[in-house]
Amino acid sequence: MNRLVTFFLLLCMLILGACKEDYVYPDAVTEFCEVKTGPNGKPALLLTDYDQSFTISESPEDYQLKADTTYRALSIYQRLGEGSQNIRIYSIYSVFSPIPVPASNLGGEVKTDPVDIQSMWMSERYLNMILLIQVKNHRHSLNFIDQGIQIHPDGSRTLRFLLHHDREKDYEAFTQKFYASIPLWAYALQKGDKVQLELNTYKEGKIIKEFNY
Q: To 10 degrees, the CA torsion angle through 149, 211, 11, 148?
């Protein structure tokens, strides 16, 4: 299957390095962000969803990524001094963030196997979520399906997405977190527009989450 429209469920996977989720870092911030690498592949800049930019002065030695590339990530970091724009990176979790595709791009049936929502929120550039998925040892494929834009009589628009989740007959043995962001920057959204995500949940069945842009 096209690698652009499938995601093997290596949940809580780090971009690089290793991290213990239950470790408490002193004065650290944990948030979704963009991490940009320099020409040597080292993390160089961290951009938050709230228009803050930080220089990454310290990071684990084994963090080696593709040069001059921007990654969507869940990062744990600490400012090096009050008001400083320099930070120390502790960990960088990979966040699944593909541009949504039409259903025809999947090359197969759209599946809506259930998930649960731990949290979901929207920033100016992304619709972010932490999903809870029941897994055992099979790969799962996930993607966001672009269902088009609905134009309303007042000129406002609703951008509609569907979560594709195929658990590939995996057993529901334990819960894993799945970090994901839909890149809204790929669409010319304006104030007054809405974003909808349809997904199937264990607790409520099929639901639609709607956010005002």
A: 0
